[in-house]
């Protein structure tokens, strides 16, 4: 049972394509852990009170957010959001007959501070992965163009390899209730790291959690959902086949583009200093920390003002805005002519 503060609630945080589905299916094998595929609901719920608008809606999302903020000041809103979230989390725990809920939703990197306001005692796990392998997984699995990933063409995916890492690095500072683990270490020694994670969660370690295919009922429930990485079903246990895949997937120009926006400090803070050394030896260059911070902060500002849910919608809204601009100009010209005011015709 999750209480008002968030005890027995765990947030598994990462960038998309970092291996969080793999970790979640192994944790979900524990007799006391319920870990469904990517609940997501805290994103639209908590963004009801934020300036950031994630979608375009026919009722005008920005106006709706303003109305909610005026109706429910900060404290009242977060109390209501907590009650709503608890009804979902505890309802799911009751149905599963378990005691700990792990919410694995990668794009929660957008709302880290709001999560702390609602559930300050919840535990947080950061699953890290080599940023180049994260990008390579986007390219090879989802056929994602690199310009979109690094923000040259803005879509929701543009923040998954850039802003996500910035936010997670700023958020995880070794504070109590947090745990950091590298994907590469997890797949190398899954049993040892799963035991340590269970202890962190206050649970008795159980054997064979890494043999996630043995939990057929849990896997079948995950197969029926739209969320999560379905590639995990192609194996029965963790493997190292995806480690350093970037060397096969990305060309030299693509690697350099990623380094230009992520910088050296990102790799070093996440524990990939060995990759930095390798890249320097291979002739790659790293921008200054100031250049990287400026680029990532610019992306953060663009995320706050981001009003579209897809590249197609961006194009559609751009077309609509151009049309409305023409229409308004035509209207002003006609009004000016009717009133005999030439200045209006030039607007």
Protein described:
The chain has 347 residues and is α/β, with parallel strands linked by helices. The protein folds into 2 domains: 9-309, 3-Layer(aba) Sandwich (Rossmann fold), CATH 3.40.50; 314-347. It has 17 helices and 5 strands. It has helices spanning 20-27, 42-46, 61-71, 74-96, 112-118, 131-142, 146-149, 163-171, 183-188, 190-200, 216-223, 246-249, 252-269, 273-281, 289-304, 311-339, 342-345, and strands at residues 9-13, 33-34, 100-104, 123-128, 178-182. It has a 5-stranded parallel β-sheet, sandwiched between helices. Helix 13 packs across helix 15 (289-304). Mean pLDDT is 87; it is low at 308-321 and 342-347.
Distance between the termini: 63 Å
Mean pLDDT: 87
**What is the ordering of alpha helices and beta strands?**
EHEHHHEHEHHHEHHHHHHHHH
Structural class: alpha/beta
- Using the CA coordinates, give the radius of gyration: 23 Å
With strands numbered from the N-terminus, the spatial order across the biggest sheet is 2-3-1-4-5
What is the level 1 CATH name of the largest domain? Alpha Beta
- The fraction of residues assigned to DSSP E strands is 5-15%
CATH superfamily of the largest domain: P-loop containing nucleotide triphosphate hydrolases
Please give the domain count. 2
Quaternary state of this entry equals single chain
| Main pleated sheet | 5 strands, parallel
Short description:
The protein has 347 residues and is of the alpha/beta class.
Main traits of this protein?
single chain, 347 residues, alpha/beta, Rossmann fold, 2 domains, 5 strands, 53% helix, globular
